Each structure stands twice: as C-alpha cells, then as structure tokens.
Amino acid sequence: MTTRKAYEGSRRKIVIAFDIGTTFSGVSYSVLEPGQVPTIKNVTRFPAQDRASGSYKIPSIIYYDSFGGARVVGAEATRDGIEIEARENGWVKAEWFKLHMSSAQSTIHPLPTGKRAVDVFSDYLRYLYICAAQYICDTHVGGHTLWKSIKGEVDYVLSHPNGWGGREQSMMRQAAFLAGLIVENDLSRLTFVSEGEAGLHFCISSGILKKSDMEDNQGFIVVDAGGGTIDISAYRQKPGDDASIFEEIAPSRCLFQGSVYVNVNAKKFLVDFLRHSRFADDVDHLVNVFDKSAKVRFKTDQDSQYIKFGGVHDNDVSLDIKFGQLKLNGHVVQIMTR
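Above: the chain's sequence. Below: its structure in token form.
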C-alpha cells in the first residue's frame, strides 16, 4: 500500500531527512525527478561502522576536546579503545544531548562545559550531512556529478518528538543554520515532522498498515518507543475519496520514559548495591552490559537476569556475583523499567 505520488516539480532536487534520536540516529533521502514517483533510500554506511554494513543506525555520541572541537562522532565514538584514548587526551563525551533541546530539560548526562544543546545538535547534524553527501556520491551512478548538480537544491526534513513545538523547532532551525545546511531564518528549505506522523507514513509505505486495517472507519495507534521519549499517536483514514488523507483522532502524547531512563535507574541501583564492594568502579561497565543484555532479554519478574562483566576470579557470594556474573532478581529489573 502506498500513497506516494509523482513529483510535480519542474527541476530535479534532493530531499534529505534526519532522524536524530537520543541514543541512535539515521538519515534517509530521495532524489526527486520531475514526473516520477520518488523512492526513499537510507544511508547505510558510516565511518567506523564497516562491521555493521547495511545498518542505517548510528550512535548519537560526540567526543569533544578541551578546546570544544568535535574529535570523534557516531560509530567512531564507540570503537574499541576510545574511552582510553579519550581519558588520555582529556576528551569529554556528549550523549543523550537531544533531551537538552526540550523545555522539559533533562539533568542526566550534562552537556560538556561551554556547550549549549543547540551547539552539540548542530555538530552532530553537520556530521550526518557529510556522511549523507559522501554516501550519495559513492553509491549512485555518476554520484559525484549528481551531487554537484543538485547540492544547491537540497531540502531538509527534521523529525522531533510529538511534544516539541515552536521553541524546540526554533532551536533545531538554528542548529541547521550553524551546521551550514540553510541560511539564517530560512523557512523554505527546512521542514519539521513529528515522530508520530513519520511513524504513520512508514507504516503505510512499508505495508505494515494494510487497507483491511482501516475498514469501517476504525482508528489505529502508532507508538514510537525510543531512547528518550515514547511518542503515542492515534489516527484514522479521513472519510472521502482521497485514501491518502489521514486525521488525528486523539491528542498525541510524548512521555519522557524512553529506554535511557531504564539505564539511569539501573545505574542508581548498582551504585548503591556495589558501593562498599571492590566492584564499585565497575558500575559504568555493568550498565553498558546491562543495556545490551539483561534489559533486552527481560520479559517478566519471574526470570532472573545475569550481567557478565568480569572473569572467573570475580566472585562475591554476598552480592550474588559468581564467575564474573552478577545475578539480578527479576523483580529488581522490573523496578528499573518503571
């Protein structure tokens, strides 16, 4: 099922869409040819992400040096040994920075000294733009010629949580200007879309939402459970001859209860739990392992979870640590998810 129509413009152009998330981000684009139905492509290659070839997600992380310069970004900021290199060079990590763009500003993961949320957002947006441009040049036939001919005809789309409004959009517009994507106060080449609406279009274009799902004027709910926010939207197909028109049937919701808050709760628990043990300095590592293992596997409070963080000589029976694995009761993990 698709409602996409042929491009009616008279000149070839390109649209690049950025989905900057709390923990991961992505880029998609479409080359618009007059009279042709557009196809949407994902950028699936980023620096230092060779082992994840074909992945369209990139970590939303930047390391800054002591002068405020961005040193490594995205997948490069998660490669082996980066934490050692950062410590030796005095680099500071910026992550979960998207949460600071909201009026409901988060106090978790403070921004690097001297950096505003819009500065970090801008640096990351510039990086994604460079990656997208390189990908288009490398993957299209005659890509360099194509990009050179239309790079001045680029429109941009930025997605944002349902709860964001004029204040946040103004900051995102400023970030796009600082990143060099648009001229200051340009309202013509930058479009915003809520994550709920973007999710609706994805469900339609990918075939997840079928025609039978919309019979008898019934509504449906789109839930985007992200790293920082959970966005909930309700729609129905608007009665009439045009099947491509949908309407919102309930106020959209934006809850600051995404997956990163589970990690925050886990860290609070582990800091207290291991405070007087020899494993107190391992908390950050434990949280990283928890994020990739126990948090993903958790289903019910009846199942214990294990965090494998050490070796066979790491044992403390009083803490339920055996052979480098910390056992967590299911009800403890359940509390972390609230």
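Residues 13-194 form a domain with the Nucleotidyltransferase; domain 5 fold (CATH 3.30.420.40).
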